[in-house]
Design a protein that fits this description.
By secondary structure, this protein is an alpha/beta fold. It has helices at 7-19, 35-47, 64-69, 74-83, 94-97, 109-112, 121-138, 150-162, 192-198, 200-213, 219-231, 280-285, and strands at 2-4, 24-29, 50-55, 88-90, 142-146, 168-172, 236-245, 257-266, 269-278. The chain is built from 12 helices and 9 strands. The structure holds adenosine monophosphate (AMP).
């Protein structure tokens, strides 16, 4: 396994691998790897000749405080990558990704404001921009993303289509702990009490899932119930909940799949989870 920090060097090495006829799978991460990330790496390892993992805590997609608090464990991350048979770890520093003259960004203006309105438009712009940079540096044949972040996934798929990146986007199911909480690097920051309180997330999703599966199309009523459940746990602060069409992220569209999404703050730590429910039977009835 080779660890490379220079974007230019990474680009050169992987272009040579491609010229030699090898396929490349990329797993982009922010680091502090867990079993969710490992699931992505394992998927990539199955069919690509070369697996590259990027570990870059992108400062542009965080507030200064969230960036400082984000857990970091580069040595442990490298051990995990090695154990999973990763070929290259790309670990650039912020200065090499964003030299002083840096001035570009990628925007998907319609879709970026969906799900939770415009409040974190800047965050998704920063995510898209860094993913576009990673795609250009690594030039993978396939890139792996978690279904845990459905908004991010939808935006990246749109960007890849619109900007003709010759890359197949592969989405991987969410890994959860035994108690139902979705694995997240931020879970390590929770106290035992906060973790217990966070278990309202899978409960809220389950309650919404039962309603959607039961044929309810009153999404306002469902989100109201979800909000009430979250408000009932004093240490959990609602960010937002959504029940929307999974493809368009529109609340007033009824396609085959419905996305149930929960975002909350527990002790100031943002936790999200979601479920996609097949609702084609219900849409046919409409
Ligand atoms: P992050 O380092 O949190 O940006 O995550 C890197 C990639 O791993 C993203 O594509 C995430 O959607 C994915 N991911 C994060 N948590 C999980 C999980 N619990 N299960 C599956 N994929 C995940």
């Amino acid at each position: 396994m080779r660890v490379i920090s220079s974007p230019r060097k990474m680009n050169k090495i992987l272009l040579e691998e491609k010229m030699a006829g090898k396929s490349i799978g990329l797993v982009p991460t922010l680091g502090y790897l867990h079993k969710g990330h490992i699931a992505l790496i394992k998927r990539a390892r199955k069919i690509n000749d070369i697996v590259a993992v990027s570990i870059f805590l992108n400062p542009k997609q965080f507030s200064a405080k969230a960036f400082r608090k984000y857990p970091k464990a580069p040595k442990q991350d490298l051990n995990i990558c090695k154990a999973e048979g990763v070929d290259y770890v790309f670990m650039p520093n912020a200065g090499s990704m964003y030299p002083e003259s840096f001035d570009s960004s990628v925007e998907v203006p319609q879709l970026i404001g969906k799900l939770n309105g415009n409040s974190i438009r800047w965050h998704y712009r920063a995510v898209l921009t860094v993913v576009a940079k990673l795609f250009n540096i690594i030039q993978p044949n396939r890139a792996y993303f978690g279904k845990k972040d459905p908004h991010q996934l939808a935006l990246i798929k749109r960007m890849v289509l619109d900007l003709n990146f010759p890359i197949k986007i592969i989405s991987v199911p969410t890994k959860r702990a035994k108690d139902g909480l979705a694995l997240s690097s931020r879970n390590s920051l929770l106290t035992p009490e906060e973790r217990e309180a966070a278990l309202v997330i899978p409960k809220v999703i389950k309650a919404a899932e039962i309603k959607v599966k039961g044929g309810s199309t009153d999404r306002k009523a469902i989100t109201k119930t979800m909000t009430k459940m979250i408000d009932g746990v004093s240490s959990v602060k609602l960010d937002f909940v959504a029940v929307v069409d999974a493809d368009s992220l529109d609340a007033d569209r009824f396609g085959d799949d419905t996305l149930i999404y929960v975002s909350v703050f527990v002790g100031g730590k943002k936790l999200t989870d979601n479920r996609v429910v097949n609702s084609s039977r219900q849409s046919r009835n409409k």
